[in-house]
Amino acid sequence: MFTRNKLVLAAGVLMSSALVLGNLPVMAEIASPLPVSPAPATTAPAVTTPVTTSGLPELTTLIKQNGAAVVNISVEGKSSGRGGLPEGLPPELERFFRGMPDMTEPESRSEKATGSGFIISADGYIVTNAHVVENAKSITIGLSDRRDLPAEIIGVDTLSDIALLKVKADNLPVVQMGDSNALEVGQWVVAIGAPFGLDHSATQGIVSALSRSLPDGTYVPFIQTDVAVNPGNSGGPLFDLSGRVIGVNSQIYSRSGGYMGISFAIPVNVAKTVVEQLKNKGKVERGWLGVAIQDMSQDLASSFSLSQPDGALVSSVQPDSPADKAGVQAGDVIVGFGTGKVKSSADLPLLVGNTPIGTQVPLKLLRAGSEKTLDVTIAKLDSGDKEAAPVVAGGDSGMLGLAVSSLSSGDLKDRKLSNGLMVEEVLAGSVAEKAGLENGDIIMSINSQPVTSPVDLKTAVQSAPSGRPIALLIMQGEQTRFIAITKP
């Protein structure tokens, strides 16, 4: 049976009495609360040095000092509109069940779900995930002393998946915030939350990797751990052994919808920046540069005459953007932004996003093997900013194994391009196919030289040395990116 790997928000939805795991907008399950210990003092616990026994960390003190500041979040939200379909039914089979007896339910039915969160101030500010409270009609916070308090949403930031809530209370227990920049791979960490509604459950593991870039985490360099995180853990804290919060549990990588040894947390330094803006302004404003970027590979680095595959490779520059005005070009490799280093494409969005609007920042880049510094003035990221019949040319375009055709002026205008060639055919087993070229792709340049005709491409390929990577700038769909292709 074919099963797809997928990233799953540590989530599930309770509908009737069945449990469904999956990538759903509202979190976790309702369950009868377990007995919990009385709340400790209302100030942040003192930082402690972990005591080890037989080389393993001693965690009981950490959990006792911080457990009371972790809350259970119950959300009443809008119905998913599944119309009484069986739980866990694959989407491709839903059409066979629709319209059958007992497959309907009132449209006004609400879904109830739970997640986790943690108290950051004694007067009731609580941090959780944005997807925990998505489409919520009402939110209830379950405290460790068995009180249930209604909460209001102060602000939500979907790009970082952070939400800030507030309850009316005083002298609440709070956590102490740490420094996620100081984390190292192999470091012990502890999660406290409500997996499957089992509130105040603790799990432990290590940091597996840092600065993970996930498909839905543009502005988040995720912390990867092997801490057991399941539906209901989302929004809960990830602690270091000194009892400081260093992450907010958010997602898992799973084939089944449940924990399979890989979980992801939002670094607390990202959360602190977002929370401050949500508290003061109710929303988050981010800096905008206006470039599409991709990671460097060793082949691409070689094609740009670079010794190391470091930096963020610019695949396109948005017209009239801050990058465009500063003179950034496709093919530039950004290696520094302000005082920060850019080792990979995942580093740049966070550096830019955290820069105040209107700030002028030195942008260090490599162009044609030479280092340049451009001054760029950061603008505000808006919601819309995300960073005649062809004639097939004969031959294989210089042994790459592809056939191309010229684009008409109308085609270029429709695609907002000044030049380019359409890939009409990619030969099976060719170096072009192995590099990822597909029919319909647009080749825009080769080794930073624009191509306007099949002859341009063929000449450029023939003049390139054999066995050395060539950098092609291509457009696939609406996205532009560089690929490295090696001439046989």
Q: In DSSP terms, counting alpha (H) and pi (I) runs of 4 or more, how many helices?
A: 8
Unreliable stretches (pLDDT < 50, length at least 5) are 1-5, 11-42, 87-93, 103-108, 384-398
Strand content: 35-45%
Kindly report the average pLDDT value.
77
Distance between the termini: 39 Å
> Cα-atom Rg, whole angstroms?
26 Å
Helical content (DSSP H or I, runs of 4+): 10-25%
| Category from helices, strands and their pairing | mainly beta
Q: How many strand segments?
A: 32
Strand order of the largest sheet: 13-14-15-18-17-16
Shape: elongated
Largest sheet, described in full? 6 strands, antiparallel, barrel
For this entry, give a set of tags.
488 residues, mainly beta, six-stranded antiparallel β-barrel, elongated
Describe the overall structure.
A hairpin with a 4-residue loop joins strand 10 and strand 11. By secondary structure, the protein is mainly β. Helix content is 12%, strand content 36%. Strands 13-14-15-18-17-16 form a six-stranded antiparallel beta barrel. The chain has a six-stranded antiparallel beta barrel with strand order 6-7-8-11-10-9. The relative contact order is 0.10. It has helices spanning 60-66, 268-281, 298-303, 322-326, 347-353, 409-414, 431-435, 454-463, and strands spanning 6-9, 12-15, 18-21, 52-53, 56-57, 70-77, 111-119, 125-129, 136-142, 148-157, 162-167, 176-177, 188-193, 201-212, 222-225, 237-239, 244-254, 263-267, 287-288, 291-295, 312-317, 333-337, 340-341, 360-367, 370-377, 379-380, 402-406, 421-426, 442-446, 449-450, 469-476, 479-486. The model is unreliable at 1-5, 11-42, 87-93, 103-108 and 384-398 (pLDDT under 50). The longest helix is centred in the middle third of the chain and has 14 residues, at 268-281.
